Amino acid sequence: MPYPRLDRTRVRMQPLAERTNRANIEDDHVRPDASPGICTSIADEILGQATERIQSARQQERPVILAFGAHTIKNGLGPVLNALMERGWLTHLATNGAAIIHDWEFSYLGQSSEHVRENIQQGTFGNWDETGRYINLALNVGAWEDRGYGESVGVFIDSGALTIPSQEELADAIRANAESEPERAAAAADLLSVVRRMELEAGVIEVEHRWKEYSAQATAFRLGIPFTGHPMIGHDIIYNHPMNHGAAVGRTAQRDFLTYAHAVSGIEKGVYLSIGSAVMSPMIFEKSLSMAQNLALQAGSPIRNHAIFVVDLAESDWDWSQGEPPEDNPAYYLRYNKSFSRMGGTMRYLQMDNRDFLLHLCQRLG
Questions:
Q1: Rounded CA gap, 194 and 191, in Å?
Q2: Cα dihedral 103→108→113→117 (10° resolution)
Q3: Which pLDDT score, from 0 to 100, does residue 202 have?
Q4: 3-state DSSP call for residue 68?
Q5: Would you say the pTM of this structure is higher than 0.85?
C-alpha cells in the first residue's frame, strides 16, 4: 500500500504580481564598476593569487569555473557575472535551484525575494503561480529538447518563448523511439503526461522578460557558456506547483551534472571559484573530480595543478593551503573547506562578502 501523499493540486496559487518582495533589480543591481569594500591584507593577497591564476588559465585556454549560491543573484550581482562572461574570464557557471529562481523572477518581474516568515504563516510562501508555472514548464519542455536545467531556463528568458508539441507529435515520438531510443521515448512520455494533466495547447507560449539584461542565465546562453543548475528535490518553491514534474527535473539536472563534470575534467591548470555555497558546490565538485581523476589516471595524465578559491562569510583563521586543521580546531568543522582541501591542487579560503569579492576580482581582471 503506497504511503499517503499531499495533493498539491488543491494548493491555492497566487498571482506573482501580488507578492511583496524585498529586492528590486533596477534599484538593487550591482554595476561592474561599483566601489567594493576595502580589502584586508589577506584578502588582497588571495585576490591577487586568484587574479593571476585566472589570467594564466585563460591564456592557456584552461577552464575557469564559478560555482555560487543563491545570494550572488539575490544580491543583484547578475551584471557583474555578465561582465566576467562577456570579457572571457569565465568558462562555466554552476548554481543551485534557488539562484535560478531569483534570476528568472528578476528577469520576468524585476523583483524577487519574498518575506518567508510572514508568508509561511499565511500559507502563501512559494505558492506563486507564474514562478512555479513557467520555470517548471521551461524544464518540462527543456527535458524533451535535451537541454540541461540551467540552459532550459536561460533559453526561455533569452527568447521569451516556449514551444509546446502536440499530443499527437509526442505520442508518435513514444512509438517511434520505444525500441531504438527509449530515453527519447521516455522524455516524450514525460512531457505528454504534463500536457494532458495541465491541459496545455500545442503551439508557442510567449512570455515577456522585460529585465533580461540582468540575467546571468540568459547571458550565458547567448554567449554559449554552460550555466548548469544543480537542484535538490523539494528544496525550491517550484515543487509546490502542479506543473512540477520530477522526471523532467531529474532529466535536466542529470544532464547538467554531466556537463559540469566534463568541465571539471579539464581543470588541470584551471581555476575553480566557489562563492557562498556550503553544500552544493563542494558536493558536486568532489564527485566530478573523482570521475575525472579516474579517467585522467587511465590516460596517464593525473589532475594535479588546479587552483581552488573558496569565499564565504564564516570565520576561519586556519591557512587551508597547509591542509586540514586538527580536530580540536573549530575550522575543522567548516565542512565545505575540509571537502575542498581534500581535492588536491592548491586551495585558499577567504572570508569576504560575495559582492566585494566579485567586484574586486572583476575590476582587477579588467
A1: 5
A2: -130
A3: 98
A4: strand
A5: yes
Closest by Cα among 255, 229, 251, 245 to 102: 229
Instruction: Locate all alpha helices (DSSP H) within the chain, ordered by sequence.
Output: 25-28, 41-59, 70-74, 78-86, 97-109, 116-122, 129-144, 149-159, 167-177, 182-198, 216-223, 246-265, 280-298, 335-341, 354-365
313-to-42, 154, 219, 267, 330 alpha-carbon distances in Å = 14, 29, 27, 26, 15
How much of the chain, in percent, has pLDDT values that exceed 70? 100
**Which residue stretches of 215-353 are H helix?**
216-223, 246-265, 280-298, 335-341
Q: Could you count the other beta carbons within 10 Å of the beta carbon of residue 197? A: 12
What are the φ/ψ torsions at residue 363 (nearest 5 degrees)? -75, -30
d(CA 265, CA 261): 6
Q: In the numeric block, which cell numbers belong to residue 94?
A: 554552476
As a whole number of angstroms, the distance between CA 143 and CA 56 comes to 37
Helix (H) / strand (E) containing 95: strand 92-95
Q: How do residues 233-288 score in pLDDT, each as one tens digit?
A: 999 999 999 999 999 999 999 999 999 999 999 999 999 999 999 999 999 999 99
Nearest Cα neighbor of 32 from 172, 214, 207, 185 is 214
Residue 363 CB partners (closer than 8 Å, separation 6+):
32, 33, 36
Beta strands 64-68 and 161-164: pairing type? unpaired
Which residue segments constitute the domains of the chain, with CATH numbers given? 33-126+211-365 (3.40.50.10690)
Query: How many degrees, rounded to 5, is the angle at CA 67 between CA 241 and CA 22?
Result: 50
Partners of 272 in the beta sheet? 65, 308
